[in-house]
Amino acid sequence: MSTTHKAHCLILPYPMQGHINPMLQFSKRLQSKDVKITIAPTKSFLKTMKELPTPVSIEAISDGYDDGGLDEAGSYAVYITRFKEVGLDTLSQLIQKLRNCGCPVNCIVYDPILPWAVEVAKKFGLVSAAFFTQNCTVDNIYYYVDKGVIKLPPTQVDEEILLPGLSCTIETSDVPSFVSTPESDILVEMLVNQFSNLQKADWILINSFYELEKEVIDWMANIYPMKTIGPTIPSMYLDKRLPDDKEYGMSLFKPMANECLNWLNRQPISSVVYVSFGSMAKLEAEQMEELAWGLKNSNKNFLWVVRSTEEPKLPKNFLDELASEKGLVISWCPQLQVLEHKSIGCFLTHCGWNSTLEAISLGVPMVTMPQWSDQPTNTKLVQDVWEMGIKAKQDEKGIVRREVIEECIKLVMEEEKGNVIRGNAKKWKELARNAMDEGGSSDKNIEEFVSKLMTIS
């Protein structure tokens, strides 16, 4: 190994955009502290990438479906089983290869959705760190499901659930939602299995920051040696200590950056509703229609990301009738640059954890329309714990109606309650930056992780 690097971390992400981005950001932090990084996505994931990060070295492993990953496998059950078999083997080969070429690995940082990575680390005598890409409250819920205390999906409607460390009670509608189907059951099992051999990991890292979830983190730390190392978003939006770190650097979609930013530059300060449901969520056509008219009726300027596969669901003539100054619909955008823009007044979001952390870090109030997985829990925290957003409630058909969307946007952007929400958003932005800045809670944890790595290497 070269003299400049005292330790070498192999990063093993679960092959999904929302899981890779936080691990990539953490890698850049480690690299800035002289740790050598090799990230090992799957071959199938690399094939879908529109752009790749330059600063870290990439070595692919196989999930057994090199052409199409999960889609090729056809179901989570088949995919996860095969990924374990082939992944164990190809990860071992990669560690051996790096050792043979004089660049031995000291540590595997892995996504606990792939719990078998710990076994590989043990086999080679390496240190292991489990990296949870979701927040501590959500991890806490999966922990309780693993222990048999909570059921997912919940069977009773509106039953109250008490979680140690959480200041408010949560209802069944606030826990991660999965429709009860064999495919979803496997998904829940996969998320719960994150705890199956966690006691074997040397470190447990959480993509959150201490001030955001103090009580839950303190409580979980009694069971596992948890350390917060987030928010894992590019440094230039937080502490600015990594001057080249402006983008995640890995993307499934090509952002229409100029078009978006030029349009935003023409809008008044805090006047625009930014709408995006991330890289995966698929809305029903009826929901798309309600959202379209809710935005139009709010009379606010809006920037709406509609992926090209989702565009056919827009109401007929909606795009033709849209005055370009009033609204812009684009297929993908550089979300951090948008959220940071002074013309943005609120973020209408599905409340995926990465989007939520970005909004917190950039101090943008939220209107939330959670779809599934951890999003209902994130929404609960945004509205009732951090008080920097409001949930647009669904009707009995599961659709958020246009009047509700319009009302929520106006509440956040115009009304008295909106002032409180905007004030809290500013407060959390400050705390997020402090956590990552020199001597902050997450910065100290990263420093401690690196200095321990240096002593074992």
Automatic annotation (TrEMBL):
Keywords: Glycosyltransferase, Transferase
Protein name in UniProt: Glycosyltransferase
EC number, UniProt record: 2.4.1.-
Family stated for the protein in its record: Belongs to the UDP-glycosyltransferase family.
Entry-linked SUPFAM superfamilies: UDP-Glycosyltransferase/glycogen phosphorylase
Organism classification: Eukaryota, Viridiplantae, Streptophyta, Embryophyta, Tracheophyta
Gene Ontology MF terms: quercetin 3-O-glucosyltransferase activity; quercetin 7-O-glucosyltransferase activity
Listed InterPro entries: UDP_glucos_trans, UDP_glycos_trans_CS
